[in-house]
Structure to design on (236 residues):
């Protein structure tokens, strides 16, 4: 079967050819650290007062931004598989503790009905199969129809505080099971496709820590959107 690259459309034995992959900006644990909250060019631009660690695959710039767009808006499950496979490869080099459960950022019922899937859940499913970490897709819910990509950071925070809420059960079953078998601090990873301001994941983390004060929260994302004058753009 003849395959072509998802990005440049040239013949390729893999979904993304090695030339396009070479153009990607990947965060490397050996260079940027396993926890990007300790890496100034990222930590200085995202809200992170309520989660403990951040792990991101790469920058939301071309060509990675094209893969994210294909996953979100053209129903390309292949693009999602490529992103999750790369993320898993990077996680094997990471020194962060392995979370007990993956938590996809929820989308609204209207968005789910029109898109037919939650892109964060798709990423979770692929990561879960490779790293053997369970998923809880019903831990939180999002109300309303509003989107956040066009909002300012302040407006995003106000919107997120209104539209996100934890489900009734949330993590009760997982924590109960963990307390019987595993004495480590209970750790979760909130998973999203793109991190821009960090407001959404920080709001969800705040809700979690209000209900479960002792848990540790990591945020995993496929891509980080750097501000226009970020030093990462110059290096990338």
């Amino acid at each position: 079967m003849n395959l072509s690259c998802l990005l440049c459309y040239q013949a390729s034995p893999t979904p993304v050819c090695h030339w396009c992959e070479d153009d990607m900006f990947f965060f490397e644990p050996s260079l940027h650290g396993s926890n990007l909250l300790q890496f100034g060019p990222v930590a200085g631009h995202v809200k992170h007062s309520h989660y403990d660690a951040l792990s991101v695959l790469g920058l939301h710039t071309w060509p990675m931004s094209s893969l994210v767009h294909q996953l979100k808006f053209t129903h390309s499950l292949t693009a999602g598989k490529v992103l999750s496979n790369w993320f898993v490869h990077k996680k094997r080099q990471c020194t962060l503790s392995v979370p007990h459960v993956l938590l996809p950022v929820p989308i609204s019922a209207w968005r789910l009905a029109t898109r037919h899937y939650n892109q964060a859940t798709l990423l979770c499913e692929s990561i879960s199969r490779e790293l053997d970490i369970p998923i809880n897709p019903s831990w939180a819910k999002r109300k309303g129809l509003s989107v956040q990509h066009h909002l300012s950071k302040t407006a995003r925070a106000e919107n997120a505080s209104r539209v996100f809420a934890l489900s009734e059960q949330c993590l009760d079953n997982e924590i109960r099971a963990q307390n019987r078998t595993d004495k480590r601090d209970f750790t979760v990873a909130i998973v999203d496709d793109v991190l821009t301001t960090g407001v959404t994941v920080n709001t969800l983390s705040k809700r979690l820590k209000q209900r479960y004060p002792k848990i540790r929260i990591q945020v995993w994302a496929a891509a980080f959107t750097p501000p226009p004058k970020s030093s990462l753009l110059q290096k990338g």
About this structure: Strands lie at 53-59, 101-104, 140-142, 164-166, 187-195, 216-224. The CA atoms of residues 89 and 175 lie 28 Å apart.
